[in-house]
Every structure is written in C-alpha cells, then in structure tokens.
Specification:
Strand order of the largest sheet: 1-2-4-3-5-6-7-8
Low-confidence stretches: 272-277
Largest sheet: 8 strands, mixed
CATH superfamily: Alpha/Beta hydrolase fold, catalytic domain
Structural class: alpha/beta
Order of helices and strands: EEEHEHEHEHHHHHEHEHH
Strand content: 15-25%
Number of domains: 1
Mean pLDDT: 95
CATH class: Alpha Beta
CATH topology: Rossmann fold
Helix content: 40-55%
Length: 277
C-alpha cells in the first residue's frame, strides 16, 4: 500500500517494497508509481525500492506556477530525507532520468549510483518538435484513448503493438483512478523539454549506467551515448530490439541488468567491510 509523504512541504505519493539497499525509482512524463510495478515486484527480494508520483502525476497534486526539472529533483531529495534514506541507488526513466541527473548534481550526497534509462542531456531539434506535437495532441485528439494510441507510438516497440501489450497498457491507463490532467501533462512536458545538463554532467562522480533502446524514437541511442560520454566513468549500453520503455516491455532483462550493476556498486563496500573485520 502506498501513502502520502510530506517532502519539505510538497505532498508526494509513495510506494515502497522490499528490504536491502535503497533504490529510488524516478518516473517519466505522466507516469505514476505503478509504472514501476515489475521492478517493485521483481527486485524486492534484494532491495528496498521506493517509487513515487512526481508533482502533477498520479496522486501527487499539481502546484501553482511552472514546473522545473531542478525543482522536481529537489522534491526527490526532500523525499529521501523525509523517508530517512541517507543515500540511494537512483534509477530514472526518460523525464525521470533528467530529474536523476539534476538530483546527482544538486544533491550528490544522496546518490550512490545512477541508472539513466532512455535519456538525454540536451533535447535536440527532433525532441523539441516531438514535444511540441505532444503538447497540442493532448488538447485536440478526439478522446483519451486516441491520445494514448498516438503517444505510445513513440514509447513501445512494434512487437508490443502487435502482440497486444500496448492495448493492455492503454486499458490499464484508462482504468487508472488518478489520470493526469491535460494541464499537468503540458506543464511536465514543458519542464522536460527545457532540460539541459550537458555542460554540467562532468560533475557527476558516482557510478553511472546509461541504457538506451536500439529502436527508441524519442531518445535514440546517440543521445544516451552523449550523456555517458559526459559523465566520468559511465557505462553505456544499447538494448537490442527495444524501444523507449524496456523496463515495462522486458522487465526481466532490465531487472537483471540493473541488479547486476547495483551489485557491482555494492561490492567495493562489502569488500572494505570484510577487510576491516
């Protein structure tokens, strides 16, 4: 069961699962905590996972005034402090990966490692044109199903459209009791479209894994590669045959890879503890 948490005056809906090293899962545009269901279920035997609704998504209210990626990163930092988590492995997807980058830059002491899935550091002309289309699409599409059918063309593989997975995701989204408003979608989208950390990423000093889907239209691998090349020591990997949201399409592949990465990060600390005994 989830609960509302006061994160330094901002009310955020939080889901937690499992025991072990802390992991914070940061969702992308419009996604509630439930987007991470396969990670909350599949990794809880080894980690304590926290997923939450960003401002204006799910059950977290939309505040007055413009949204910013930096402000949402501060929300994530305040949430970790409210939950008394001294530091966590941070995993961000798409817009959530933008938040994760800012979190590592603005609050480095709270970040043990980064996984950046479907990411960029500076939106390119294609990305900006795509988001401009999304901005008016949510107002002019004939109904919510049409919005999702169009939006998901950028998100999921042709395989997922062919085998019924996308239809299932659409039905689940339409049945969700806390849909995102058009205003909230547009304000989150504006924040993510204005994201730019490219010239600052060299300041990230934690182990970082950057993952890209080979078929990703929204944030193609070249954008993720540029992020990895800007972060000292970052590892960049392309997931063959996958698109923008592989943590939902192939959760077993995603979970295995991030789990292996977190074990690698944890291993030096375990080694130091063994040597000191």
């Amino acid at each position: 069961m989830g609960r509302m948490v006061d994160a330094d005056g901002v009310e955020l809906w939080v889901e937690q699962r499992g025991e072990g090293p802390d992991v914070l899962l940061v969702a992308g545009l419009g996604d509630p905590a439930e987007a991470w269901r396969s990670q909350l279920d599949g990794l809880a035997d080894r980690y304590r996972l926290t997923a939450f609704d960003n401002r204006g998504a799910g059950r977290s209210p939309l505040p007055d005034g413009p949204l910013s990626v930096a402000g949402m990163a501060d929300d994530a930092a305040a949430l970790l402090r409210a939950l008394q988590v001294p530091a966590a492995h941070i995993t961000g997807f798409s817009g959530g990966s933008f938040i994760a980058q800012e979190l590592a830059l603005r609050h480095p002491g709270l970040v043990r490692s980064l996984v950046l899935m479907s990411t960029t550091a500076r939106p390119d002309p294609y990305f900006r044109a795509m988001t401009r289309f999304w901005n008016w699409m949510v107002e002019r599409a004939p109904d919510e199903r049409a919005v999702l059918e169009a939006f998901y063309l950028w998100i999921y593989t042709p395989r997922a459209h062919a085998d019924g997975m996308v239809d299932r995701f659409i039905d689940e989204a339409l049945a969700f009791e806390h849909p995102q408003s058009t205003e909230a979608f547009q304000r989150q989208l504006a924040a993510f479209a204005g994201h730019d950390t490219l010239d600052r990423l060299g300041g990230i000093r934690v182990p970082t894994l950057v993952l890209a889907g080979e078929l990703d239209l929204a944030t193609p691998p070249r954008l993720g590669r540029a992020v990895a090349e800007s972060i000292p020591g970052a590892v960049f990997e392309v997931l063959p045959g996958e698109a923008h949201q592989p943590f939902q399409e192939v959760p077993e592949v995603f979970n295995a890879r991030v789990g292996a990465f977190w074990r690698e990060v944890e291993a030096p600390a375990a080694g130091r503890a063994t040597r000191h005994r």
